[in-house]
Amino acid sequence: DLKAKITATGGFVPTNRRTNNYLANITDTSNEWIIKRTGIKERRILADELATSDMIVPAIEDLMKNTDMSLQEIDCLIVATCTPDMPMPSTANIVCRKLGLKNVFGFDINSACTGFLYAISLGASLIESRKYRNVIVAGADKMSSVTDLQDRRTNILFGDGAGAVLLQLSDDETGIQDSLLCGNGDGAEMLLIEGGGSLYPASMETLGSRKHFIRQDGRAVFRNAIEKMTAVSKALLDKNALSIDNVDWLIPHQANMRIIEAVGKELGIDAGRVISNVQYYGNTTAATIPLCLWDYKDKFQKGDLLLLTAFGAGFTWGATLLKW
Ligand code: ACO
């Protein structure tokens, strides 16, 4: 059974950096506190007048440089995001228009920080069905559009970015081996953006009560993120009769350096094999894992086993094993 494989990656982060000192000037925090509690040194922030699609377009253009395929050969575009340009049309459709894609069906997936893992699993099954040959999966979020700059409990965490991968049928044993995707609604109140949907449509009241911004119970999210990413990673390894010693690289969702380190430690993997870039980008939600793949692609050798794991709003969580 041939698998779907990531054959190219692309990425984009805005050039504008939001430093810890900038945040310390507007809220009661400090560079030292932020680094100690989160590991984050800076995040990239997209210009106000630009949207999530404006990061996906350059990420896909970057990806295309690493293939000999033409844009018109793309069959399907799946965008994982919780900060779409607008409720409709989908961000995937907006990207199709901006890139001039004509032979594509595209749609968005909203599973917050787990979105990219849900999306590549779905993309892989489209490839494995043999009905589609070239599927692009992008993970992208403009988290600055939903971050309350006045709230020190969240303004320190998030940044903007986009990553994209091309999925094609593998011609050998490499590729996406297996995934375990999970979710329940049990953590809905612990991490959410309440306003702007059909329950609380935009109104003076929702704006006044700051419902359009992300809100969370940091401690509960922190604890659940470590527990769930560790458990699902172990379960996926067990299911495939593998142990952590078989894993060459662990790529956890990039929310906080302490979460990343704790998951690595619980799983028992050498710290040098745990990938992170949260220091430079903060939490870019659906973009964190594809941005790691993009940043670190030159480190991976053909045949390396990568374990990806994510956790986010819902709660949702999951893990994917892929042979590079
Ligand atoms: N600067 C200074 N002090 C702060 C700040 C800040 N930016 N934020 C909170 N504090 C204070 C709190 O008010 C609290 O003070 P108190 O004890 O007087 O009440 C104290 O610091 C400790 O607060 P905690 O919330 O317990 O701090 P914690 O060590 O848990 O760190 C943090 C907070 C960084 C938000 C952490 O809980 C976290 O990272 N949680 C995960 C959240 C997350 O990553 N969410 C993203 C989306 S989900 C995902 O991607 C997995």
TrEMBL record:
The keyword Lipid biosynthesis is annotated on this UniProt entry: yes
EC number in record: 2.3.1.180
UniProt domain Beta-ketoacyl-[acyl-carrier-protein] synthase III N-terminal: residue ranges: 107-181
Cited CDD domains: KAS_III
Assembly and oligomerization: Homodimer.
Keyword check for Lipid metabolism: yes
Listed HAMAP family: FabH
Protein's UniProt name: Beta-ketoacyl-[acyl-carrier-protein] synthase III
Keyword terms, alphabetized: Acyltransferase, Cytoplasm, Fatty acid biosynthesis, Fatty acid metabolism, Lipid biosynthesis, Lipid metabolism, Multifunctional enzyme, Transferase
Domain of life: Bacteria
Originating species: Epilithonimonas hungarica
